[in-house]
Design goal:
This protein is of the alpha/beta class and about 450 residues long. It folds into two domains: about 5-55 and about 340-435, Aspartate Aminotransferase, domain 1, CATH 3.90.1150; about 65-335, Aspartate Aminotransferase, domain 2 (3-Layer(aba) Sandwich), CATH 3.40.640.10. The chain is about 35% helix and about 15% strand. A hairpin with a 2-residue loop joins strand 15 and strand 16. The chain is globular. The chain starts with 17 loop residues before the first helix and ends in a 10-residue tail after the last helix. The structure holds pyridoxal-5'-phosphate. Pyridoxal-5'-phosphate binds next to helix 5.
Length: about 450
């Protein structure tokens, strides 16, 4: 496609150092499979599946074809009070992947919207079951639940809280689960299960019957891949059950095969009450998210409302958009036909070993990995995040896209990768680190 205009000025870029980018842009002109192609036509291997959303590879022909066909027949249906086949079909496909008894799916357009919707579902359910007095949410330090006001209120990231102080009240934070006792860990850390007792302490302090819901990412992704200690999620579930508290798993990153199973819930053997998802639902091709709930929650809210009345006062103009549903249905077919979850599971040990070869590098403080995701934490430079930002740029020009959060790189290869791709990712990562150690000025890159 040809674009008119040659100014970068008007576009205010999200989560980007705008001035630095516009002074030295990194443009992706096309993408195919595991590679992006920059403004010079150079190939850049995608080490993070975009933002953890494209495990089936970029520009998958089946998704392109499905969306193209959909756009020729129906580009939009008003989702309030009208239906189209795609949204019902996709909900049924998603429900095949969620654990029992989670079988009802509400569509949104992003992970952030999924989180805010999950909070509203929790409130609506508590109201419907006569427990509207439950007015407190429990989240966790170093959580990331997106950027809407609900999600920011639940996020345990200091920049979020400092910049946006007016958030939803009555949120309390459990401690995060990175204890430092299990450095360079593959899989679940042995230490830290007792951190789940923070939830018990909130129950003791505020009354478990006052708490509406607890939200956790099965693996905290965006703040650096914090894998739950063994027994931790089980204990959280147990406390929730004892006090009638809803458990929400934010599976926006862990969903759709990142750990070899459909969801983190199956990997860790813990079933929540509500699950949020997005990203890989459409292979990142069209914005879409979803919230899946236990049958009991759907039935209680829906059946508790007089016949003919709207049961849940919530929805988006683009909920279940036909193009997004077509992309999602194509992705569900690709998952099955290409055995994507099995491929993720089969490649994970090779990936885990490969990232652990970095462990002795003098710039690396910790490596945490499970399934097809790894957090590689660098020692900070003079200010937190300075080294990470510089490395992310330097790696791009070395031909590797990797998402950094602060000083931690988050590697999340696509599930279609072969061993040679993993080798290329890790080798380019190591080479870039080497080029800047010792004493090299990262800012000079
Ligand atoms: C766990 C989690 N929840 C929510 C979000 C927000 O998703 P989105 O950026 O699609 O709004 C993210 C994004 O990375 C996430 O990792």
């Amino acid at each position: 496609m040809q674009y008119r205009g040659n100014s970068l000025e008007q576009y205010w870029m999200p989560f980007t150092a705008n001035r630095a980018f516009k002074a030295a842009p990194r443009m992706v002109r096309r993408a195919e499979g595991t590679y992006l192609y920059d403004q010079n036509g150079d190939a850049v291997i995608d080490g993070s599946s975009g933002l953890f959303c494209s495990p089936a590879g970029h520009c998958h022909p089946k998704i392109i074809e499905a969306v193209h066909q959909q756009m020729q027949t129906n580009t939009y249906t008003a989702p309030f009070g009208l239906g189209h086949d795609g949204s019902f079909a996709l909900a049924a496909e998603v429900a095949k992947l969620t654990p029992e008894p989670i079988n009802h799916v509400f569509f949104v357009n992003s992970g952030s919207e999924a989180v805010d919707t999950a909070l509203k579902i929790a409130m609506a359910y508590n109201t419907a079951r006569g427990e509207a007095h439950r007015n407190r949410f429990v989240s966790r330090e170093r959580a990331y639940h997106g950027v809407n006001i609900g999600g920011v209120s639940l996020s345990g990231m200091v920049r979020n809280r400092e910049t946006f102080p007016m958030v939803v009240p009555n949120v309390v934070m459990m401690r995060h689960t990175w204890t430092g006792d299990d450095l360079f860990c593959v899989g679940q850390p042995a230490h830290g299960k007792e951190l789940a007792e923070d939830l018990q302490r909130f129950c003791d302090t505020y009354g478990g019957g006052q708490i509406a819901a607890v939200i956790v990412e099965p693996v905290a992704g965006s703040t650096g891949v914090l894998v739950p200690p063994r027994g931790y999620l089980e204990r959280i579930r147990e406390i929730c059950d004892q006090h009638g508290i809803l458990l929400i798993f934010d599976e926006v990153i862990t969903g759709f095969g990142r750990m070899g199973d459909p969801f983190g819930a199956q990997t860790f053997g813990v079933t929540p009450d509500i699950m949020t998802m997005a990203k890989a639902l459409t292979n990142g091709s069209i914005p879409m998210g979803a919230v899946a709930v236990r049958d009991e929650i759907y039935e209680c809210v829906v059946d508790g409302t007089p016949e003919g009345a709207i049961e849940f006062f919530h929805g988006y103009t683009y909920s279940g958009h036909p193009a997004a549903c077509a992309a999602g249905l194509a992705m569900m077919a690709i998952i099955e036909e290409e055995g994507l979850f099995a491929r993720s599971a089969a490649m994970a040990p090779y990936f885990n070993d490969a990232v652990m070869t970095l462990k002795d590098h003098p710039l690396i403080k910790d490596v945490r990995t499970i399934g097809m995701v790894a957090g590689i934490e660098l020692f900070p430079e003079s200010a937190p995040g300075k080294r990470g930002t510089a490395m992310q740029t330097a790696m791009f020009w070395k031909g590797l896209h990797v998402k950094f959060t602060g000083d931690t790189a988050i590697l999340a290869p696509q599930f279609i990768v072969e061993k040679r791709h993993i080798d290329e990712i890790v080798q380019k990562f190591a080479c870039t680190l080497d080029a800047h150690f010792p004493g090299g000025s990262l800012a000079a890159e």
